[in-house]
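Case study B.
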Amino acid sequence: MTDDDTPMTDGGTDDEARTDGGPPATVPPDDETPTWSDRKERSQGLAQLTYQYFERSRREDEDLRAESTYVERDVLGFPTWPHETLRNLAITSFFVGIMLLVAALMPAHFGEPANPGSTPAIILPDWYLYWSFGLLKLNPLNPELAVLDGNIAIGNEFLGIIAHGIIFGVIGLVPFLNKGSARRPVEQPFWAAVGVTGVILAFTLAALAIQNFFPISLDLLITLTFILPVLGGIITYAVLKTMREGYMYDLNRRYYMLRPPK
Amino acid sequence: MSLKKQDEMDHNAWLKNQDLTVIETAFLTTLIWLDKRLRIVDYLELLETMYYRANLQMPKSHTEQYDLDNKFWYWYPLYSLGSLSIVAYLVAAVSGALLGFYYSPSTAGAAAQGDPTAAYDSLVMIMTDVQFGYMLRSIHRWAAQFMVAAVFLHMLRVYFTGSYKEPREVNWILGIVLIGLTLLFGFSGYVLPWKQLSYWAAQIGVEMALATPIVGEWAAQLLFGGFTLGQATLVRMYILHVFVLPFVVTGLIALHVGIVWVQGIAEPH
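Model:
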């Protein structure tokens, strides 16, 4: 090296400035860069733990594969082209076509311009928010806990917001509560009943949101809002329990022959 | 060393020696041209390695794997709801971009309370003056309705077939977030025409925000631009609808589908 102060970044020779590109410029590993075997031998802290876990999970995977009696066969399913592609294209264009048709047959409604001075008799969001709007109309259920100055502790709208939080929270917790390999409603009547309860609750809450259209008293409507879903859930549970035996016979014969339940 | 340019791997000569069709020649020429500049082959190799590392393989069709009768078509519509919501999302995106050419998010122009604003007038213009404008708005609105419906039904399908179970909890929660964002998409779009129902729906939104303790006022200012509705509300809803949510939702959909790809489809039963 003629000039030690200048760092050589191209890893090439130092004798003259090259104009023809020279040999390929690779960066030689310096002492700081760990080689792959160094990395493997890391023996402390999180790096070690991570590495150990990776090794373990890889070994577990290999063991499971070795133990498995699953027979790998050539795929006899539908080929991507043309079968799968054409089917997807057909379904997609059918769906888009339906959308265009509906858009042409039922054009979007348009109302009066906004007027902050006059509240309309009926305020409604789009249909998909009816359930959410219904949750804001639970005031009769408000415990009305009075605090010192006489204001109620939980405002009616805040009650609705809490209800939103509970609903989203419960839905989010479902995978952590429902474990096991059951997949079909008949295999898990309870969770199917919970699902049906939720669906009916969405509809009854929507009905609560448009309560003006129902010629029954508000108390009855609110009672029905919560009784009907539970009733639906109980019926679902009973029906699935009854169906179960006959259905499981079929399942065991055709499905679990190939993949026994854990 | 000489300054003469050397080409040790003469790809073009190699190409000439091959007996290729026009399409193959065009493909290889393009690939070589790009590869000389961008080293595409390296990335392709990387992708290929990743592909095999991740153990991705074409799944057997369910009917084949479990020796079922031909029930596949019977259940197929339920298993395409996820992609149908993406299709509706795309239709809404395209029609929405076209609507955006004509819409103006402004409450100016109302002399008295209840007069049409610029936003309202631009919608009237779209529906009466613009060629196919009425159809365009109708398509946008119905695509939104279809997307929300498909998303809800998709969630029900996932619930009742237990597809959210063990390795897929994260995707289930991601789906809940996506449903919430879809509803927010719908809500912000509902406000944009600035008609009576838009205004009062937004009013309920503000009241809901204000009813929340601690973060409520902050949220009302962030989302609605204040405690009373006006120009700031409309612009915030507009930016939410056409800028923030499209990026966030598109990104999350990509992640959602990516996780499905990596984890495999929960087999239909």
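The longest helix of chain B spans residues 231-263. The remaining cases will be described in the next quarterly update.
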